[in-house]
Amino acid sequence: MAHFPEGFLWGASTAAHQVEGNNTNSDFWLMENLEGSVFAEPSGSAVDHYIRFKEDIAEMAKMGLNAYRFSLEWARIEPEEGQYDAAEIAHYRDVLLTCKEYQITPIVTLHHFSSPQWLIRLGGWESAETPAKFARYCTHVMRELGEWIPYVCTINEANISIGIKKIMKRYELKSGSPGAQVGMNMEKMAQMQKYYMELSKAFGVPPTEVHSFLAPRSEEGLAVIFQAHVAAREAIRQISPQTKVGVTLSLYDIQSAPGGEENAKEAWQEEFLQFVSYLQEDDFFGLQNYTRAVYGPDGLLPIPENAETTQMGNEYYPEALGAVVRYVSQHLKMPIMITENGVATDDDTRRVAFIDRALKGVHTCISDGYQILGYMHWSLMDNFEWQLGFSKRFGLIAVDRATQERTVKPSGYHLGNIARRNAI
Asked: Which family would the database say this protein is a member of (predicted)?
């Protein structure tokens, strides 16, 4: 039996918009409910986690998990610029206190893709003013809640727009390449022009200026996101110096076939290395990985025809996680928190196998001296996968959305048993 370090955090992750439901002040809520939306369906009540969070956290503890990564919804807390909702702060305080009650360590994400509608109307994630607005929100949250937050991730997958841009380009070329690590509805991409006209009307800005977090991004906009991280980190440390601060990035295990070494090197530079300077002062790094990407002499190679694939169109390749830990650790001398790793499948036996193979790589990294704080599986529950709706199932817990009844899957008990013995 291979043991993990004492105090290792074992948990699962969620994102507020994907699980809470009725997030009516967010940009995503508006986008989902427009006529001609590219979303397969609206989030609606999602999996009702906003109401049922206590039973969900209790279930995590019962399973054997000791950590929970979840996000606070900026659009709930600051529904209009400069106006903070005390009831929503009280709600998230209840979530944090419930974690404390069940001895679950909270890992809080302050922005997980969805934003207040007012932010988009003011330029969104291309505006040079957004970092200050985000830092102001973070200051308010940490002033109210910081004493119960030991770990905070400022922004989820700050580099995700790079992957989205590549996915859209591959879609245009009709190549059978890896899917995105976020739910994008490529079947509806053809109607985007009309959709952006509707978005323009809804947000009251020109069609080319609807800058939500997952929208195509300029180089300046990409810098805005990382500047927002830096500004938030400084604000958090002033208010809550005991809280450990990091950011999460979406990273493939970038590999090369013969002749593809230079292309793989360029991919690492684009998706990770260019951002290292923004992260050097962080307390930890949030690593999110689901699969690999293999480059040949002509660029990204398609997934092999005989490879097992997931519901997201990714290659089933749990060994990617350990490889990315090793690569990141060469360039960032800080602890790593695995904030997302998982697989979309209806075959839960494949999820169990994925967990085992991924954790074997994690344990080998720890044995070789790499500092890893914990493993957060994506996700706690089957939930709303953005543009793809509720069709993709990542959860350790199944949810019957007609009744909102929860059922722990064998994979949930499996990960919980690993957590209880702190060993694989």
From this structure: Belongs to the glycosyl hydrolase 1 family.
Q: Domain limits at 74?
A: 9-421
Residues contacting 269, CB < 8 A, separation 6+: none
Is residue 184 assigned to a domain?
yes
Beta carbons within 8 Å of 375's beta carbon, 6+ residues apart: 8, 9, 10, 11, 338, 341, 359, 362
Q: CA 372 from chain center: how many Å?
A: 18
Structure tokens belonging to residue 262:
């230079």
Residue 196's pLDDT is: 85
| Residue range 4-40, pLDDT digits in tens | 999 999 999 999 999 999 999 999 999 999 988 999 9
pLDDT digits (tens, 9 = 90+) for 159-214: 999 988 777 666 565 545 555 566 666 666 556 778 889 999 999 999 999 999 99
Element (H, E) at 313: none
Buried b (16+ CB within 10 A) or exposed e, 72-108: bbbbbbbbeeeeeeeebbebbeebbebbeebebbbbb
The answer to whether the beta carbons of residues 157 and 248 sit under 8 Å apart is: yes
pLDDT digit string, tens, across residues 276-318: 999 999 999 999 999 999 999 999 999 999 999 999 999 999 9
**SS3 at position 375:** strand
Mean pLDDT of the chain: 95
Q: How far is CA 139 from the centre of its chain?
A: 22
- CATH number, position 88: 3.20.20.80
Q: How far is CA 357 from CA 33, 350, 352, in A?
A: 40, 10, 9
Query: How many structural domains are present in the chain?
Result: 1
Flag whether 402 is in a domain: yes
Place of tokens 């290292």: 276
Within a domain: 2: no
Looking at this protein, which amino acid is placed at residue 219? Answer: E
pLDDT value at 215 more than 70: yes
User: Identity (one letter) of the amino acid at 1?
Assistant: M
**Cβ contacts of residue 303 below 8 Å, gap of 6+?**
176, 177, 178, 309, 314, 315
Give, for 402, the enclosing helix (H) or strand (E).
Answer: none
List residues with catalytic annotation: 157
